[in-house]
Amino acid sequence: MIEGLLLGLSAAITPFNLIMVVLGCVIGTLIGMLPGLGPMSIIAIMIPVAIGIGDPTAALILLSGVYYGAIFGGSTSSILLNAPGVAGTVATAFDGYPMARKGQAGKALTIAAISSFAGGTIGAILLMIFAPALSSVALLFHSAEYFALMVVGLSAIAAFAGTGQVGKALMMTLLGLMMGTVGEGALSNTPRFTFGMMELQSGFSFITLAMAMFALPEALFLVMNPARAAHGDGGKITNLRITRAEARAIAPVIGRQSLQGFFIGVLPGAGATIASFLGYAVERNIAKGAEQAEFGKGSIKGLAAPETANNAACTGSFVPLLTLGIPGSGTTAILLGALLALNITPGPRLMTDEPDVFWAVIISMYIGNLVLLILNLPLIPYIAKILTIPRTYLIPFILFFTLMGSYLGQNNSTELLILVGFGVVATILRFADYPLAPLLIGFILGTMLEDNFARAMQLYRGFDFVLERPMTLGLLVLAAILVVLPSYRARRARLRAQGVADGD
Amino acid sequence: MALDRWIALAFIALCCVYGYAAFFTMDQLLPPILQRNPIWPSTFPKILSVLGLIVGLIVLFSPKPTGKPEEVKDGTIDLNRLGDYHVGQAIALLALMIVYALTLRPLGFVGSTIGFLVFGAILLGERKLHILIPVAAIAAGSIWYLVQEVLGIFLRPWPGFLL
């Protein structure tokens, strides 16, 4: 391993490659901040540039810089505008945005940067150690287990929605799943639920939905209630520093979430989104009393958890890519394309055939993380200047960026009408206190869930896979418990409050 | 009836429509060879519609969580005071977004974007047009340049008859 590291270092540390890292991080951060442009689209855009460089190591270093920069940039817009550009940073907005509204935007960005750095770096170390071993674990998973795992993920998100909210969260999840079935299914390529409209043939676009669920209601709330905007501290980001006590509070969170996020990231299809939501939910459940109540209102732990987990999961998603040649997420799929274009085939033989590339990727992750931390910490006050823009300018621009984001994805102005329609629905749902994140997660996972379900059904010619695969059954039972338990506990608490003994 | 129950009711109605489409309209189109498949395109939607109905009914009929009235979170919208908010502005902005969607193709990107940004800001009370219009123009121009030249996505900048 040591000689591998040295090999990677010697390949990665040249003046040209270091310039590539810095360039990649800056480009990634700037574009990633725009809501709607996630790492996936940015890397896709940068591929021609990377191939133009010609040297695979430099190209990969540039791309990984862009990748990490984009994730950090996405967190920035989640925290400052509540407009997550990527599903993986949706959970960041839960606590990051309330912090920014309390005037702690600087602190929130610092915590995001540090947790991202820690998550990415620890993830890279784990990648180095576990890459060979973990591929065999992931291979044991069958489509039936993937199906069950996604069901667990969805019910966990609903179960941790908070007291009295589980039913609503489940409802939103199901709505998201239903919306995911619109368009041509992978199963038979027959259009479903399109009502004969051409525009619905390929289904709803994820970006449009994300914009409509988060950015648009937020902008409308800002319009309706100007008091909401006045809570920033005028953009003067003074308290960048976090105190020793705060550092001590988030350190265990970072440790746990690096591990958990990494292992979730290894599983194909799970990735940064599930990792961040699960990380948030787990930390919320672990926290006690007042700390738990703080979640969702600007808790530093609630911010550190998803930030660490999504970066660790991004690193984890390289494991199946590098060891099996199977991309586990959209972003790694695009990276796979870039690697193939550079005449490198990732797979089990990569480590032996092209060790310099394998290790250069890992080293470039370290360097990318480090450069990002060094670059962004001093730049945070300037990034946060977004908050000083007067609302008469800010709101039209936010609305314009949501429109642009969904227009660029589809190049179709019908998409904009869909965006406005969903935005209105989402605002009404927000009025009634329905959580919107489960809807989006259900929508993202819906297609994968159905594909894996269909594959399992076909392999076992019916529902037998549930009984024949103990792991699937176990996971599904876990999912059922997750959903039923909170309402059972709430019911017991209610009965106890009424003075009815429940024979405990 | 509270708004969240109305939404649950609407959701149940949606599930009924969705379920009707899944149970009664999708399977006729299925070619015979696919009917031997254990899973049909309608299988997953059928499961979803049944689950949706169950959950919707639970939400509709579950008792309201008794307990302390929620403390009013500052900055959130209180539905009972809806009249106090700038609802008109919000609706006007939504209308402006629809106008933007409809004029993007015929007017071209630059024109409609400047229009959207300027009218949006005026709606919100901005009156310094000598700052507003240049800002909108620069923003529209530079974003067009970024999208068209750097990202390589085609956006028609001017009205169709000029290009």
Structure description:
The complex is a heterodimer of chains A (504) and B (163). With 504 residues, chain A is mostly helical. Chain A has one domain. Helices cover 75% and strands 1% of the residues of chain A. Chain A has 22 helices and 2 strands. Chain A has a two-stranded antiparallel sheet. Chain A is globular and about 70 Å long. Chain B has 163 residues and is mainly α. Chain B has 2 domains: 3-64; 87-162, no CATH class. Chain B has 6 helices and no strands. Chain B is flat and about 65 Å long. The N and C termini of chain B lie far apart (56 Å).
List keywords for this structure.
heterodimer; A: 504 residues; mainly alpha; two-stranded antiparallel ribbon; 22 helices; 2 strands; 75% helix; 1% strand; disordered C terminus; B: 163 residues; 64% helix; flat
Give the secondary structure arrangement, pairings included.
The complex is a heterodimer of chains A (504) and B (163).
Chain A: H1 2-12, H2 15-33, H3 39-53, H4 56-81, H5 90-101, H6 105-140, H7 143-159, H8 166-180, E1 183-184, E2 191-192, H9 206-224, H10 244-266, H11 271-286, H12 289-294, H13 300-316, H14 318-324, H15 330-341, H16 350-353, H17 355-383, H18 391-410, H19 414-431, H20 437-460, H21 465-468, H22 470-497
Antiparallel strand pairs in A: 1-2
Helix pairs in contact in A: 1-17, 2-4, 2-17, 3-4, 3-15, 4-5, 4-6, 4-15, 4-17, 5-6, 5-13, 6-10, 6-13, 6-14, 6-17, 7-8, 7-20, 7-22, 8-20, 9-18, 9-19, 9-20, 10-11, 10-13, 11-13
Chain B: H1 3-25, H2 32-35, H3 43-61, H4 87-107, H5 109-123, H6 129-150
Helix pairs in contact in B: 1-3, 4-5, 5-6
